[in-house]
TrEMBL record, chains A, B:
One of its GO terms (cellular component) is cytoplasm. GO terms for biological process: anatomical structure morphogenesis; epithelium development; positive regulation of DNA-templated transcription; signal transduction. It is found in: Cytoplasm; Nucleus. Belongs to the transcription factor STAT family. The keyword DNA-binding applies. The chain holds residues 311 to 735 of 750 of the full protein. It comes from Astyanax mexicanus (Blind cave fish). Keywords: Activator, Coiled coil, Cytoplasm, DNA-binding, Nucleus, Phosphoprotein, SH2 domain, Transcription, Transcription regulation. GO terms for molecular function: DNA-binding transcription factor activity; sequence-specific DNA binding. It comes from the Eukaryota. This is Signal transducer and activator of transcription.
Amino acid sequence: VDLFRNLMKSAFVVERQPCMPMHPDRPLVIKTGVQFTNKVRLLVKFPELNYQLKIKVCIDKESGDVAAIRGSRKFNILGTNTKVMNMEESNNGSLSAEFKHLVTLQLATHSLPVVVISNICQMPNAWASILWYNMLTNHPKNVNFFTKPPVGTWDQVAEVLSWQFSSTTKRGLTIEQLTTLAEKLLGPSVNYSGCQITWAKFCKENMAGKGFSFWVWLDNIIDLVKKYILALWNEGYIMGFISKERERAILSPKPPGTFLLRFSESSKEGGITFTWVEKDISGKTQIQSVEPYTKQQLNSMSFAEIIMGYKIMDATNILVSPLVYLFPEIPKEDAFGKYCRPEAQPDVDFQEPGCAIQPYLKTKFICVTPCPSVFMDFPDSELLGNGFPGTNSGNTSDLFPMSPRTLDSLMHTEVQEANPGPLES
Amino acid sequence: VDLFRNLMKSAFVVERQPCMPMHPDRPLVIKTGVQFTNKVRLLVKFPELNYQLKIKVCIDKESGDVAAIRGSRKFNILGTNTKVMNMEESNNGSLSAEFKHLVTLQLATHSLPVVVISNICQMPNAWASILWYNMLTNHPKNVNFFTKPPVGTWDQVAEVLSWQFSSTTKRGLTIEQLTTLAEKLLGPSVNYSGCQITWAKFCKENMAGKGFSFWVWLDNIIDLVKKYILALWNEGYIMGFISKERERAILSPKPPGTFLLRFSESSKEGGITFTWVEKDISGKTQIQSVEPYTKQQLNSMSFAEIIMGYKIMDATNILVSPLVYLFPEIPKEDAFGKYCRPEAQPDVDFQEPGCAIQPYLKTKFICVTPCPSVFMDFPDSELLGNGFPGTNSGNTSDLFPMSPRTLDSLMHTEVQEANPGPLES
DNA sequence: ACAGTTTCCCGTAAATGC
DNA sequence: TGCATTTACGGGAAACTG
């Protein structure tokens, strides 16, 4: 028996395949009440043992250690916990031996660490744990890792962060984007290589002046990218991580109407905004951003359509678009036009002149800013004549002169797009 | 023992209270996997029996009958199925008797029929069954009711339909609304009283030319009302059920800008639209509706805000609102203004002239129709100069003259609301 | 093939635990 | 008391089933 046991131990190679999980992008995170599959494979084939090897599944086998940790919890696998391994029969006329009661073998294989969550809202933190663990240790089951988690270097963290994008989209993070993230974690510096980042800084502590950690903020942006703006991200249209100072520096020398896309730094839930250059009445260069769009808003309208349709609505209900060129100089139609649904055409068939019943008029939502900054003399939006009551603050005026921009746009009989000032072709 | 049993039977009154369900508006519908409570109450108090009466719960007790029905299913109650009744102790010095082993009593109480569903999407049909059953029988457990469901009269159905609104909102259905619904079920007629409606007509068969039944259509509208436009419904602002012919008849004599709110007849999911009067270039009265708004769209913007902000966008990017008076003659601001969130004011604090960092510009969605019907000569929306590529149909022109309406609205230096033609004060 | 029915499970909200 | 964690369940989608 001992001879046989040794034979088996040296002959078999056990390979545990990564579990086919609930969340394909986030294996190793298991949610209570949700099914997952896991596969154990023998790399050596013994036809004689077909249907003779029984696998028994259990969770937290070594919970003697785990139980010592405060607040640890016992999990159970529902359903049957044993299966017989079935190899494909190979009917070559080999000798066969039948084992009725096979000797129990202790063949072990280890997964990377697994995190159990009870609600999907715990996924960001669970995944952060997986990342930090695998970034800093090869130990297969160091249950005490997070009782005193080691620090990582910026170089390690940067690689992991970029991989979060490159593994689920067609594009990782550029040096510029990573430098912006480094500054968020470590403050201003010229070289972040070798700088140390603690687990607390990465995932536990809230960022200065914010109600959420660095990782929660970033992971919500990853989610935003994957679910709402994947195509634009893959195209490289989203600069995304750029400080407001650098944004100003690169936009200021550009012609008015040049804009870039940037993630919100203040929103926990993941937001995206655009920032553009314009010239105000006095000819001074202004940098403007809109309040970031959230997932909620992007549900009803794609970001490409928002960009294409965004208008500033002046006092006389005239719309002009301040967005012309995606930085550095891509006409916005070239970049975003192909991601906009073509507009529904009016149903001309029914519009017979003599027909009494009109068809439904098609509508669309557009995103507008009622109060352009060039009217800073009149910051009260009630002046805009949008007809909305209830926002009256008392100092309204019924007389409102046309702005230079409005007059300018009225000069265009060629109405492709009413642009502010200097950019008409 | 028999004497005691008889005493008990005559002394106790068992009252089954309606179950406190998963869906408060829809009791008697039970969903698998979801908890519910049910209460059995004794109307006569015997302090001596306190904590002596044991209740045993079961489902489908008489499943001998049920099992005979094709496709019937067995359900189980999870968790404990027995409870001891506890009455509040009354410590008046009464005589007491202790019964160690109480005689089993067959005290029965019946609920109205119960429908079990496995997904909430089955709720509309489940509730329809409850309604039809209770409308037409008092039998507490006629398991075969739906093998040959009896017909109802329009009078019965009308009462039930109105009750669906009055029991969950502050307003039932008017005679006019009910007449519109009768016409959908029974076709045109002058008097629907006494007309017969089959269960199939009510809930099983699709309506003519539609992919859904009468009840599914109506129940989605009830859901729309409750979740999205409850306040407007309670105010009586929603005419809702009105035929397009009658709509035309009542709107035509009204001044341009008069509008009413009507449910979509073509959308399964529940939709609402507005219809208004306007005069076209030739002075002819036109009746216009927008494509109905769905729950999806109302998620991002309330219907009141859509109504207040709705604009027609002409070729020169000028916006005008065709909606002025809610039928018969309520100014729209009076009706809907109070249901619009006040607009966020620009964050003036940060707008110091010397400050380099501008605040975010506030944005809002507005709902527009790019191609007004008065421009029927130019049905191609590409002509609108909205700058959207990709909808080019080949016959575009770069020259587009200003419309009379546009010129008219430009004349208003008093810009409260640019209205079409005859209604400015 | 297909329509009625059930299962699966995310994501919001509420409840519970610590 | 406040935060962390779990439970509850609607609703969209996929899977199942007769």
